Structure formats: structure tokens, C-alpha cells
Amino acid sequence: MDPALLKERELFKKKALTTPTVEKKKSEPKSEIPRDDKKKSKSSSNSNSAPKLDINTYKTASGSSQYRFGVLAKIVKHMRTRHQDGETYPLTLEEILDETNQLDVGNKVKQWLQTEALLNNPKIEVTPDNKFVFKALYRLKDRKSLLKLLKQQDLKGLGGVLLDDVQESLPHCEKALRILQNQNEIIFITRPMDKKKVLFYNDRTASLPIDEEFQKLWRSVAVDAMDDAKIEEYLDKQGIRSMQDHGPKKPVAPKRKKAGNRKKVFKKPRDNDHLADVLETYENDTLTLKNSV
Question: What pairs with residue 188 in β-bridges?
Fold first, then answer.
């Protein structure tokens, strides 16, 4: 055998004897639990850890703001429908929840509706006896009140009223509008920007007879896609300058005066102008004295 290998073997043995070793105790065998007992213990632990779900606790739990606002939106929609159907008498919160089939809401949601949500909602009005009613934009009862509103808007120069607001405010709106339209009391105009209909009072005293040829010419000119600048440019090309004095005027900046190139003349001081004669005589006297000397 190679002596070098024998030498390395002896060194390895010496090193192994010098290094300390720790013996591990043998672990005791665990008593095996039957499978049936394991299943029972797991089921009991799961039943203890998982809380029972209750409808009321779930709906009133924290983080259910989406549910709360869903309840509020349903209430507001129901109150609007009641008002449009002519049922304008107020209701308590319990009556509203009963009509909307939401009696299963929790106490926290009811408290939130009673003290905060319905009080601060712009579409709900609270009566002195703590009942709730729909708050329309205009207080309209019938077509006479609508016609009065349109007349006031026309006299004050406020223009028309949106049809959506009238439909929301006036009970049985379609019937009233149909009667007023048959009587030629109102006019509908579609707003081009959002295609919403605007309701105006038809003031028949301001109507004038207009020649049919002029009406045809008027309707043949389309200016929907033109702004004021394009209309003014078209009129200038046609030699019409009647619109120059109309519309908002552009502010004209004042012209600044240019500084002249004049040379500055330094003026003599004028402190002793009243002694000019005295100085001249004094200078003459001094000259004569010098000459005589």
C-alpha cells in the first residue's frame, strides 16, 4: 500500500478521535390516533373557529357601504315613482322599507338612514313629524301650475325648463303635456349639445306673420356646424357688414407713444433771476476799475 495514503489515514483517525460528538436520543414512538378520531377532531375545530353567518350581522358588518347605498338608491327611486304616480303623502321609514321589501335590513342601517342618509339626500324632504316625502325640483300639482311656471320663466327672461325636470316634478306628466300641446300652449325644442328637450311657453301675442318665401330661405341655411367667426367671414364675402356691431367686442390694447429722439437741453438754474441787473452793473464796475488801474 502507498505509504502516503497510510499516513493520511492515520491523521484522519487522530483528528476523528479529537473532535467531540453529541449523541441524539432516540425519539419515543408516537401513539397513532385512529382516523375516525382525526376526522372528529378536525370537524370540531373547524366548527369552533368559523363563526355562524347571520343575515343581519352580514348586512350590518363593516365594509358593507355598497349594500347601504344600494338600499338608499332603492328608496329614492321608489319615492320618485310614488310622486310621479300622484302619491305625494309622506311615509315613515318603516313604511318605506315595507313598500320596497327591505324590512330585513339591520338596525345600524336603519339608524344610518333615519339620522344621516335620508336627511342629507337632496331628493328627500323631511316633514315636521319625522316622515319622508320626495323633493321635486319644481312644486307642480297639475297642468295649470306647470303653465304658470312657464309663463313666469318667459316673463323674467329665464328661458325654458328641461323636460326631464318637469317629468320628475309633475304627477301624471304625460297627460298634462299632451293637453297643453293640443291647446298650443307649449313648445318643445331639442337642445343640440346633449339632445335634451326644453319646454317653453308659447306666447301667441308675440307671433308675427312671416312670408313663406322668407321661411324657406331661413330653413335652407344650415348654421349648426358654424361658429360666429365663420358666419362673420361668410357675411363679409357677401358684402354684408351688419353684424360688426353685435356680439362681444374684443378689447383693444392702447397704443404706446414712441419716445422722441430729441436731445436733452440742460437749463441753467434760475435761483437769482431777480438779481440779474445788479450782477451786470457789478461786473461793469469791476471791469472799469481794472482798466483804470
Answer: 199
E-strand stretches of the chain: 124-126, 132-134, 161-162, 186-190, 197-201
- Residue identified by cell 318667459 is 154
State pLDDT tens for residues 41-71: 555 555 454 444 444 454 444 337 889 899 9
Residue 15, all three cell numbers = 483528528
Residue 184 has pLDDT above 80, yes or no: yes
**What are the residues whose beta carbons fall under 8 Å from the beta carbon of 124, sequence distance 6 or more?**
75, 76, 79, 118, 132, 133, 134, 135
What does the block give as the cell for 141? 300639482
Backbone angles phi and psi of 172, in degrees to 5: 50, 50
Ordered DSSP codes for 141-176 = -SHHHHHHHHHHHHHTT---EEHHHHHHHSTTHHHH
Cβ-proximal residues to 176 (8 Å cutoff; 6+ apart), any chain: 142, 143, 146, 170
CB hemisphere CA count around 128 (13 angstroms)? 0
Q: Which three cell numbers stand for residue 109?
A: 342601517
Q: Looking at the whole model, is its pTM more than 0.85?
A: no
Question: What are the φ/ψ torsions at residue 215 (nearest 5 degrees)?
Answer: -65, -40
